[in-house]
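Q: Sequence in, structure out?
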Amino acid sequence: MRALVVVLLIVHGLIHLMGVVKALRPASLTQLTLPIAPGWGVAWGVAAALLVAAGVSRLVDSGVWWAPGLAGVMLSQIVVVAFWADAKVGTALNVVLLVAVAVGFGAWRFAARAHDARARLVETAPTAARPVVTADDLAVLPPPARRWLRAAGVVGRPRAGVLHLTQGGEMQTAPDAAWLPFRAEQTFVAPTPGFVWVVEVRGPAGLPLRGVDRYLDGRGGMRIEVAGLFPIVDAAGPTIDQGTLVRFLAETIWFPSAALEPYLRWEAVDDHAVRARVAYGGVEAAGVFHVDDAGDPVRFEARRYRDDVLTDWIVENDPASFATLDGVRVPTRSTITWRDADGRAWTWLRLEVQRVERGAAAPFGSRDAGGGCLAATQ
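A: Exactly. Output:
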């Protein structure tokens, strides 16, 4: 799609140069029957320059390519109307480009909002160096949690501070719906706690759906937009606060040293399960981690709100996907399932972690999220 937009912008701009030639040498172009005064020739030329500039900007993936594109399309249509007899076919192309420009603007606005949310999150992180985890720190944990953190290799490493993940996978919007591919980036702050998850889903007919799921300052929020333009979900409130806190708890599998943070309390369920309770910002949540003999957290179960009803929410981490990344053992493939009171289960998300980085990373969309790179730090 980007290649098509680039071609249309540049070709449309070059066609506008015909008006410049006609204004300078009236007899040189018989295809244009109407005379073009020098002032209108300038308008044709400026439209050409703006459209070509927008095409080149889109080619190099500049986020603000839509700005010269919008100006070029508007000026182009003014010229088309002024010379309707010769240029009316340009209207159809301008309509197509106007749609592309609107989508480009939506993507830019969405990325800016996501960047602002991430910046607010990172500002909550302490600036002091994080303490190094010692073997004595693990002694306060129940045996399953202690086995997990030992196997993860957090001893001798600083506690997690800010962490950034690049992810891919597929999701369903309903139990019988088609699986839709997505790419996502997520930033965590472990000491606070909080996260911002930014996702782009390739919807039906290739329509982009963009969303932000966040837990910030003890409050959650979820917003999903079509092409970054039209919101279809904008949720907040107590049930979202609880749900996002449960999600944060489950996702400590990617930064297990968070188990030592003061907002978490642990109690053993049995030799292979441990319950974690988290309280922050006046909101409480709990979940059970199932830890296998090797010390890997292969399953997480909690009660989370779905459509304002507390529902079983299950995260299963593929045992074969655990990998030691920069000295820390974490899962890289997970599935998420809702299970209703009648026992019906709906696995709606298949997730793969592709990259993990310590510290705040570049804005969403600035890197290829589909490369499958596992170069992680913690």
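Helices lie at 2-24, 38-59, 66-82, 84-87, 90-123, 135-138, 143-152, 238-250.
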